[in-house]
Design goal:
Layout (H helix, E strand, L loop, with lengths): L6 E6 L6 H7 L1 E3 L6 H8 L6 E6 L6 E8 L4 E2 L23 E2 L1 E13 H5 L2 H4 L14 E4 L1 H9 L2
Parallel strand pairs: 1-3
Antiparallel strand pairs: 1-8, 2-7, 3-4, 4-7, 5-6
InterPro entries: 5hmC_binding, EVE_domain, PUA-like_sf, THYN1-like_EVE
Pfam family, one: EVE
Length: about 160
Amino acid sequence: MSARKKYWLMKSEPTDFSIDDLARVKTEPWTGVRNYQARNFMRQMKPGDGVLFYHSNTDVPGIYGIGEVASLPYPDKTQFDKKSKYFDEKATPEQPRWELVDVGYVRTLKRPLSLNEIREHRDALGEEFALIRTGSRLSVMPVTAAQWKLLLSLE
């Protein structure tokens, strides 16, 4: 019996890496996660899991595309690179602190689902939907199958 597919929302600033960038390169390591809870979510990811690609810190924050997890988690090499903004002096190759997964491009949404539009469906998405919970700032968060289906139905 295979594990059930899981779903995730992953945030990126479009000036750093956008859905258009992912469409161009097809697969990209999701580097730079430096929050333990977000890292722990990435540790649960499996190839084939669905990803809602969210643009944050932009004029119209929202979901802009769909990706999928394309690898099992592995150490994020940027933690060892002293020139990287993601360098972590406490991490070593023998005891890495940060992991990542590769994310593959599936498609760009026909139209972005803005954060404001997503908030309009707060009741249907439920309290556990972290994106619209006050104070939630994680760059990686789980999405239920029902939330995934609802969000994509808005497209």
